[in-house]
Amino acid sequence: MSFWKNLFGGGGSSSAEPVGDKALGEEAYKGFLIKAIEMKAGSELQLAGTIEKDVGGALKTYRFIRADRMSSRDDLVALALAKGRQIIDEQGEGIFR
């Protein structure tokens, strides 16, 4: 049974672990707030972030994680913010549905 749990994400820990959603950088963009989030993947950082917006009096949050990995925090922040802008441009508030 553990084979199936590991295969479908039900057991064990993943190689990329979020570190308390520590924001490494943030940017306001078209009414949204994009945050680059620290996610360690071994000795590297994996591209991750959140997009937030107040919709109808409630704070909505969308999380994104991509396969890209890098060793530089500056590169991670720049790429995560760029990816957040791209998601907003493509989907707008539709990301919260």
Overview of this structure, please?
The termini are far apart. The chain is an alpha+beta fold and 97 residues long. The protein has one domain (15-96): Double Stranded RNA Binding Domain. The chain has a four-stranded antiparallel β-sheet with strand order 1-2-3-4, covered by helices on one side. The protein has two helices and four strands.
The rough form would be described as: elongated
Radius of gyration: 15 Å
> Termini separation (Å)?
34 Å
Helix content: 25-40%
Reading off the top of the CATH hierarchy, the class is best stated as Alpha Beta
The pLDDT mean sits at: 85
Largest sheet: 4 strands, antiparallel
Question: Based on the structure given, which CATH architecture is correct?
Answer: 2-Layer Sandwich
Q: Any idea how many domains?
A: 1
Which structural class fits the helix and strand makeup? alpha+beta
